[in-house]
Amino acid sequence: MRQAESTQGEYDKALEYYEKSREIQEKVLGKDHPSTATTYNNMALVYCAQGEYDKSLEYYEKALKILTVKLGEEHPYTKTVRENIEFLKNGSH
Fold it and tell me: What's the whole-model pTM score?
């Protein structure tokens, strides 16, 4: 549902849901859990779609930091987030 809302242009609503999700994840799973990183990545995607590239990069980097420590450099999800950062930095948005 949240992803569908962001796809439909309801960015503020999507971010609101992601923020609530992140707060719950941090309380239940911890700030450095891969699920929390997933939420950071999703928030970055929404910010990128809104054209807020600095904010997007901030959230991608939060996700990458967690995933690198918890899953390792070579994990497919870590690589995906790293690719998202490169895509953003190269102006391919």
Answer: 0.86
